[in-house]
Design goal:
The structure is a single chain. The protein is of the alpha/beta class. It has a single domain, classed as Maf protein (Alpha-Beta Complex), CATH 3.90.950. The protein has helices at 13-21, 43-59, 87-97, 134-142, 171-175, 179-192, and strands at residues 5-8, 27-28, 65-76, 79-81, 101-112, 118-129, 164-168. A hairpin with a 2-residue loop joins strand 3 (65-76) and strand 4. The model has no long low-confidence stretch (mean pLDDT 94).
Length: 196
């Protein structure tokens, strides 16, 4: 049976690069779902819910496709750090992360638009920042790079990378897409749907 087309329900350029890296052919159709945080549930549950909502919304637009939705959340203690809403918010987040360890959670939802069957998985990675100077924060925020990233940084950025002292877990998860977990889950999902 022919494998349906793969649709990435995300406009993240990083996720596009990572999917291409593992040789998958796909189309991009971003979701319009708002990444609203429910403070009454855990960060993991929030990421899973948002990722699934993104994939389900886009799945409704395709008769025969596999849709992939994802959501990344940065957690410092009990605090969820989403995408900054302003440059001052980005600076605030980076000051909070400076010299401390945080957790990056990425949830991925895979939905079959025909059967509406789905699977949701998540990956957690611990990241330790070195102490960063105020001048470094100002320079990084002025570049504009932190503005579309959870926690106001990208580990793959030319400058954001130098803030990271240590990574415990999947590096690609911090970029926004845990490749190994996704690869295994995607092909297992196709197998269950008898596409291979």
């Amino acid at each position: 049976m022919k494998i349906p087309q793969l649709i990435l329900a995300s406009q993240s350029p990083r996720r596009k690069i990572l999917l291409k890296q593992i040789g998958l052919k796909f189309r991009v159709h971003p979701s319009n779902i708002q990444e609203d945080i429910d403070r009454n549930t855990s960060p993991t549950d929030n990421a899973r819910r948002i990722a699934l909502r993104k994939a389900v919304e886009v799945a409704a637009l395709f008769e025969c496709a596999i849709i992939v939705g994802a959501d990344t959340i940065v957690v410092l203690g009990n605090r969820i750090l989403g995408k900054p809403v302003s440059t001052s918010d980005a600076k605030r987040m980076l000051r909070l992360l400076s010299g401390r360890q945080h957790t990056v959670i990425t949830a991925i939802a895979i939905v079959d638009s025909q059967s509406r069957r789905h699977v949701v998985l998540e990956e957690k990675t611990r990241v330790k920042f070195r102490k960063i100077r105020e001048s470094e924060i100002a320079r990084y925020v002025a570049s504009g790079s932190p503005m579309d990233k959870a926690g106001a940084y990208g580990i793959q950025d030319d400058y954001g990378a130098v803030f990271v002292e240590r990574v415990n877990g999947c590096f690609y998860n911090v970029v926004g897409f845990p490749l190994s977990r996704f690869h295994s889950a995607y092909y297992e999902f196709l197998k269950e749907l008898q596409y291979r």
